[in-house]
Q: What sequence folds into this?
């Protein structure tokens, strides 16, 4: 099937209506465990969504409705302020800085998988409990590409943006007709359809189905594209459209749900839909142009909302909405909004920053009959917590040493406050590799007085340690730096952070936490 065949929203609606499930299909046996749909936007900020920011210049009716039917977390975070490390953390329940990726993201053909074969992932854990699992959209945690004539892929020393020649040389020798190894289907996903990296800014510009490219990237991207913000020149598959990736992903997700319900209605499913929007280069499809007053980036946020609406629609069509946990969130904070729009609300900083604007995210969950409609939680949660939480949800036993940075926060979904929540340690990581550690109301930023997005400068002088300290309960906008005024708190949090970095399992999941 041509992946571009169902891009017009009007056509999409007609196609959906044509395949409404029959009453016989609607009465098929339902699985005991809930279906799980996890929708991850790319660079969507706390202030982009209307239910978090009434002054948002971006209409988000579907996400707002979802929040009214479920719970809205107001203190949710990504473990990192960039894409690759957050996705790794979500999938494995581990901080990505425990791997070779200490700062930045994965770019180029020289980046093998961050997740080693055999490491448990959310997908493999759920699969072990009888789930059919699907990953659709942006992958961005590394793949093993095969080459022509035994060519050895060169290491670009993570300097791809400044020295693209190495990446271009590697690209010339990639054999796109061969299987791609180390990807989602080897890490617990039964089905995968997506892209290797950022769908609209990282080559190769092609879709991957299972472990092979759908079409061979054989056309160099136009020179005019190189002027787009964040766009990396490279090979494209013929007909690949930067504006159509999320409509394609959405229709593939809908197709997976329909196929699953027609073939395996007695099994639960897990759908991980990793959208490209609103990541640069800000090229919304025609149906979204002008939908926001923030500009093209805001228009792409409406694409996320449109996709959420389409998924909710098909769940309702198939009678799956009652037993499906739907979560909508983002991989990190947003870049600065246009036209006065506060993309991260009143929180300080933006994507890649160590301040909360870099990693505080919207997080909405709905599970009818289980989660109280219109509820709100101020519990601190992280996307790394999904590993332990989903494991608990399906009564899966996780092996020791897996998901060691993941807390079970399932009670928070039901409006319960856990007694030990104030003592839990959270570590955040910036684009430039700086750490922050939060315990209770205190957040310490280590090694910089700045945003943490750029070059590391860990010391102001030979023996002067620098950093920032905030009481985020009293000062959520991180305006009052208490580093010099609270040396005791600084010392305590620095010791905690050093222990976190040096000990492989800082808050190891105990088997007693996850019921057999």
A:
């Amino acid at each position: 099937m041509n992946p571009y065949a169902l891009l017009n929203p009007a056509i999409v609606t007609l196609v959906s209506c044509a395949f409404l499930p029959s009453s016989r299909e609607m009465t098929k046996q339902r699985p005991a465990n809930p279906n799980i749909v996890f929708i991850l936007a790319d660079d969507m900020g706390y202030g982009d969504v209307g239910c978090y920011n009434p002054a948002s210049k971006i209409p988000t009716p579907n996400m707002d409705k979802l929040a009214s039917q479920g719970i809205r977390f107001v203190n949710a975070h990504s473990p990192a302020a960039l894409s690759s490390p957050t996705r790794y953390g979500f999938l494995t329940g581990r901080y990505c800085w425990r791997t070779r990726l200490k700062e930045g993201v994965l770019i180029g053909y020289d980046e093998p998988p961050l997740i080693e074969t055999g490491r448990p992932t959310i997908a493999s854990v759920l699969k072990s409990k009888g789930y059919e699992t699907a990953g659709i959209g942006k992958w961005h945690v590394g793949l093993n590409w095969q080459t022509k004539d035994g060519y050895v892929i060169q290491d670009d020393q993570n300097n791809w943006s400044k020295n693209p020649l190495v990446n271009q040389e590697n690209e010339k020798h990639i054999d796109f007709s061969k299987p791609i190894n180390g990807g989602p289907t080897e890490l617990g996903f039964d089905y995968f359809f997506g892209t290797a990296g950022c769908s609209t800014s990282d080559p190769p510009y092609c879709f991957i189905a299972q472990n092979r490219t759908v079409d061979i990237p054989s056309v160099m991207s136009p020179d005019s594209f190189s002027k787009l913000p964040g766009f990396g020149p490279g090979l494209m598959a013929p007909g690949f459209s930067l504006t159509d990736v999320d409509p394609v992903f959405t229709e593939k997700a809908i197709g997976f749900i329909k196929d699953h319900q027609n073939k395996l209605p007695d099994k639960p499913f897990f759908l991980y839909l990793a959208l490209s929007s609103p990541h640069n280069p800000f090229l919304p499809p025609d149906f979204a142009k002008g939908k926001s007053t923030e500009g093209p980036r805001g228009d792409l946020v409406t694409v996320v909302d449109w996709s959420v609406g389409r998924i909710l629609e098909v769940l309702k069509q198939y009678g799956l909405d009652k037993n499906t946990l739907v979560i909508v969130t983002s991989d990190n904070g947003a870049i600065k909004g246009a036209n006065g729009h506060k993309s991260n609300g009143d929180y300080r900083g933006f994507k890649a920053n160590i301040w909360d604007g870099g990693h505080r995210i919207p997080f909405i969950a709905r599970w009818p009959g289980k989660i109280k409609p219109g509820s709100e939680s101020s519990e601190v949660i992280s996307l790394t917590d999904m590993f332990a939480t989903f494991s608990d949800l399906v009564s899966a036993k996780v092996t020791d040493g897996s998901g060691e940075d993941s807390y079970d926060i399932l009670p928070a979904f039901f409006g319960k406050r856990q007694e030990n929540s104030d003592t839990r340690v959270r570590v955040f990581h910036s684009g430039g590799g700086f750490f922050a550690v939060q315990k209770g109301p205190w957040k310490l930023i280590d090694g910089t007085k700045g945003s943490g997005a750029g070059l590391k400068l860990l010391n102001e002088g030979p023996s002067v340690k620098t950093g920032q300290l905030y009481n985020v309960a009293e000062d959520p906008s991180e305006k009052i730096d208490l580093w010099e005024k609270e040396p005791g708190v600084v010392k305590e949090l620095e010791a905690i952070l050093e222990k976190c970095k040096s000990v492989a399992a800082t808050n190891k999941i105990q088997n007693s936490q996850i019921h057999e």
